[in-house]
Predict the 3D structure of the following.
Amino acid sequence: MSDSKKFNAHHAPVGAFASFTLGHPGASGGFGLELGRPAKQHVYVGVESATEAGRFEALPFFEEARNHQQDFVIEGQGDKIVRAPLVPVEWDQIERRFGACVDEWSWGDACFTLYSPTWSIPEPGREGSGALATALIPAVFAEFTVDNRKGARARRMFFGFQPDNERLHIRESWEMTSERIAGLCCGGDYGVATDAPGATTAIHFDVETILGEPDRERFHFGNGTTGILDAVVPAGEILTIPLVLGFHRAGVVTSGFQCSYLYSTFYKDLEEVLRAGLQHFPRYREAAIAQDAAWRANELSDCQQFHLFHAIRSYYGSTQMLEHQGKPLWVVNEGEYRMMNTLDLTVDQLFLEMRQNPWTTRSVLDFAAEHYSYHDQVAFPENAEEQWPGGVSFCHDMGVGNCFSKPGYSSYEIPGLKGCFSYMTYEQLLNWICCASVYVQASGDIEWRQGRLGLFRECLASLLQRDHPDPAKRDGVMSLDSSRTRGGSEITTYDSLDASLGQARRNTYLAVKSWASCIALEKIFRDALETPLADACRDQARRVAATLISGVTSDGTIPAILEPGCESRILPIVEGLAYPLHCGCAEALDPEGEFGPLLEALRNHVLQVIDDGRCLFPDGAWRLSSTSTNSWLSKIYLSQHVCRHILGIRGPEVAAVADDAHRDWLLQPDNAFYAWGDQFYSGVMKGSKYYPRGVTSVLWLDE
Amino acid sequence: MSDSKKFNAHHAPVGAFASFTLGHPGASGGFGLELGRPAKQHVYVGVESATEAGRFEALPFFEEARNHQQDFVIEGQGDKIVRAPLVPVEWDQIERRFGACVDEWSWGDACFTLYSPTWSIPEPGREGSGALATALIPAVFAEFTVDNRKGARARRMFFGFQPDNERLHIRESWEMTSERIAGLCCGGDYGVATDAPGATTAIHFDVETILGEPDRERFHFGNGTTGILDAVVPAGEILTIPLVLGFHRAGVVTSGFQCSYLYSTFYKDLEEVLRAGLQHFPRYREAAIAQDAAWRANELSDCQQFHLFHAIRSYYGSTQMLEHQGKPLWVVNEGEYRMMNTLDLTVDQLFLEMRQNPWTTRSVLDFAAEHYSYHDQVAFPENAEEQWPGGVSFCHDMGVGNCFSKPGYSSYEIPGLKGCFSYMTYEQLLNWICCASVYVQASGDIEWRQGRLGLFRECLASLLQRDHPDPAKRDGVMSLDSSRTRGGSEITTYDSLDASLGQARRNTYLAVKSWASCIALEKIFRDALETPLADACRDQARRVAATLISGVTSDGTIPAILEPGCESRILPIVEGLAYPLHCGCAEALDPEGEFGPLLEALRNHVLQVIDDGRCLFPDGAWRLSSTSTNSWLSKIYLSQHVCRHILGIRGPEVAAVADDAHRDWLLQPDNAFYAWGDQFYSGVMKGSKYYPRGVTSVLWLDE
């Protein structure tokens, strides 16, 4: 098994698109604000050696830093610089305890703990703003303890960093000094502060020079590139320093639609974040500990918990609670790609949000409906010229890297393609339906359902039309591509896989998802007393089921694409089964019910492709498609859940063996730099790094 | 001679700390906002070949760009991508016309011109805000012309760029499309726009793919990394596209003292900058042409004009017109170091500001007096323990990289040193006196002089005290170091030179500057009817003169340091002579007057060290110190001016030969990337790159 200590993890506030990422060896982490990768800063968490005065040891999150001192050529006899020896703590001396909200490294007589609460966000305007300000504080929290009770002399302990950012300068926050707060910031963007008595700050070109200087007042060197907060733990004492690690961006932060961070209404600048974090430090620390425990209070294996905690962290690092014209807008940025509210991620991340903040998903659905929906025509592939009415669908995303794209258009989709970057019209239609239905069920927000009833109707019409323009010829499966593709072909969220999952037309993964959408819409309409529409949904669901069952081949499996000659077999064919339970449609999953045969067919399919190894890697990891080496963890988690929880498939292949193999993927040294990531090619993370999507694993908590 | 075309130059708004730098081969320039170096973006200014359809040629300001397309592995038969051939125009086909406000490249039937006006800035509140909004617009302007009158077919022309910035995403500004403006931006920070009829935008991973696509509507690909604005010039026509290249940062942009850009009161976001620039394009273009002509209307040689224009551009790229609590604050950032309002640069840049905007210097002097001054004790080097009262002085700078340092402290000065990064207490005292006196003379601002009279008195007392605490023992030359050095030694602005210019104590460069300070203070006090103080100044000036004259050695030169055994001889000993003319003290420079012998001694010194080659490099470039290979262009310009204009020294060594050699320094390929720079080690730019200080060359206009 891979070394389970050496991996980057997000330590992220909620909704600040920020992360203090840490854990991978070297200058791998640090303060990342709106980044699509770890910040690659040198981070110093260290203490003077217990055995050798003047020698320092720090967690191994730094490298030999570039010595900027050398840039300044000084002729003649230069001033002497004494650099203290600083060595990384050996990995085998370090113990790491990793949770969803608490991450702790202990070594020797020292311990460093990062706290990052996963608050639920109260809906703005619904209750007092205090809870909102608490939940949205753009900060994470840390404690650094040195137990010098056995020590014979005082020792210096320090937390520092060297940002690799040529635009933002590191600075001591002199504004806070009079408040007895020691603060070290990088421009106005991020920084760390403590109110530990006696703590001070220092800046120079490198930390070794700072540590080598006995005169504590010498190095307030604004031109320096490295800073530390430090304190002295007296002989015979134990000292714990609280640290607030804050982020801030004021004013308008997006283009196109101009939004600001909602937190900026509570915290006007970085200093206010740091002050508030220190003032309420115990509350945040205790919340993190309690929430961490809550995330642990389940029957999951340690390995499953590792996946879950890691994924939750990566999710929050990508989240952004914005405000647009006085209304809140939730944005999840797509990891390394930083696309905003990619709808095929929203539908996966939905299950976490239903536990945490259902209203945020509503804000995404509304913004999509109002600004990122469109109407199209559709055509059969053999005759792209002959166009039929299509209907409504939704854009792949709302923009990228804080730039909202033109309304009605995503940043991703390009006409004229058959592969990656083509349109996902059909899939996004299903995604909006699934998200909206799950939201209605989880929130009980009848008012919203009624307000969106017209759009639900449009969605159904659009869904049907993409099956066949002639109602008599419908078989439940998508057969027409959007005119937006301009002669190309629609793709699915699995954009980088081969046709087995990449092609939308006649795709059985989408077929099951469309079945789930029909089931969900049926309930929406039935509850709204729109009986004829509800019945139409049921009919369409039956057509999907019948077509899928008729697609079963002689070995008991269903091809990925319902077209002649398709050899591919896929595991995500079952994905859509995850939704009915969350839409209040448990009856659809009754093995004895109307869709029992469909469930049975899908169960047999999975059992077969696992049993014959077509959809497994040699190490037991799941292979989403039998014809591709590209496999996505978020979707594996989801399919695992469906297999176990809906289809009742048991055994180590759908649990421990696979979980271990997937953990090994995440912990391979090259992969582990990117924290949680999604796309693995035979176990190598090649895309969707630093990614939010893994929270499909919260479904495991339902099992 | 070096190839005079291939060099980066700033094209910078006034006071926006921004520059569209361009001119060096490769991906060397582009939009730089608050950067200490050129932006290293791929910039594309190109047109379809006149002879070969589908082939494109662009100015050589790009390189083979990283193909981000390769990041997206797509299995199966990928969509075909057609990349059009794009080749750089050969350098020998390019003619460049370089001025202070107009920079033009022409080749074949195309011409690209950048306009960057050098407005005077009206003092806020003194006149209507219209002129202020005009002067401070954070934009530069361009025209791109293709003369296709001889062409038989329409040709596509384009301006594009690929930013190398992972945080800011390139975007099409869809908000402006309805206004018939085509805009291409990077986040909200910078961008380009045109209102040329028919102009469009496109984005993809690389420009070759965009150019290779016949369907103009396909590539609005938000995930792309490269964008172009383009238009088609029909056969038989000539087309000129106006371009506005704008920058923007809203809200608080500094830490410590929180300031915003003054322009942000007129332009709330980047789009407003681009719109306003297009709306008033003719005014800006004509102003740039007129101002460019005005900067040329002099007797300077072409080579001198090159130095001057280049320096003016580099200066404006470092300038920042801020607002702090409703009051304007002028900041000049120190090139690659980005230190803010370094006072030893202010005193050099003063002469430009007195022509352009005297009040901005007053804002710097006031902010220094109110927030970045301090009082110290002083001590003789042989007995640092015995301290004497010192007096007032000023910090080296006000901070770095938009972070204001703690009041009373610079970002640069460190106690306990004898070399680089030590305190410059004495020199900064002289610099504040010289700046303030020149400001009073240039502005006629008697009210300000009277308001600062107390500080002028303090300055005089401080200056005298640093000579000797015992008035009877004063000889005009600095002999005591500030207690701020804590046992170290003060240095001068020449911080990276050997002791000849680096040591403050007994330094003859500082001695002449202190003479000039006394002359200047004498006039301040005499005009203020403070006759005893004026007389005291005169007395001190006499002491300096006497000491310097007594220091003349047998070869007619004066040592750099008035201490035994100093072999160094320096050219900047004459620097201080530049000030009396600008302080209204011409009489002090009268060869027949009281200080005639001092002038004669300094003249002989210069003639000797030039004649015997001690202060020349082999190519005729000036060597500031006979014992160092480190020479600074800004200071050379200043000393050249004094030699010619004050001391009446003529001949090619102080003019054409030296000017040519210095131009060759600037144009060496490695140096030329950094636009104008200051510190050269035997002709190699090793420090103070991308630097504002060269505007000492405006003094040449007085000759």
About this structure: The CA atoms of residues 366 and 452 of chain A lie 9 Å apart.
